[in-house]
Amino acid sequence: MVIVTITQIFVTYCPGVNNIIFGMAEDGMDLISLAICLSFSVLVFLVMEAEKAFRRVLRARGEDTDDREFDEVFDKQ
């Protein structure tokens, strides 16, 4: 995550890289755009962590969260 963040900041704000190679505006993103990107990044992170927590709870109950067992309903051939 850190490498992707650093790379994104480099591409967005490094003159020559952002406007010549990627065709972006030279001044980078404004505060509202940064807030929107950060908000959606945090939202995706929270959803993924909630899914992992839900899978842990199901796994503790003995459920097949990795879909390794055969199920007649979903695994028809």
Number of strands: 0
- Uncertain segments are none
Q: Major sheet, described briefly? A: none
Give the rounded overall mean pLDDT. Answer: 83
Structure description:
This protein has 77 residues and is mainly alpha-helical. The protein has one domain (2-60). Helix content is 61%, strand content 0%. The protein has helices at 2-13, 17-21, 31-60. The longest helix is centred in the middle third of the chain and has 30 residues, at 31-60. It is elongated and about 55 Å long. 0% of the residues are buried.
In short:
With 77 residues, this protein is mainly alpha-helical. The chain has three helices and no strands. It has one domain.
Q: Strands, helices and their partners?
A:
Layout: H1 2-13, H2 17-21, H3 31-60
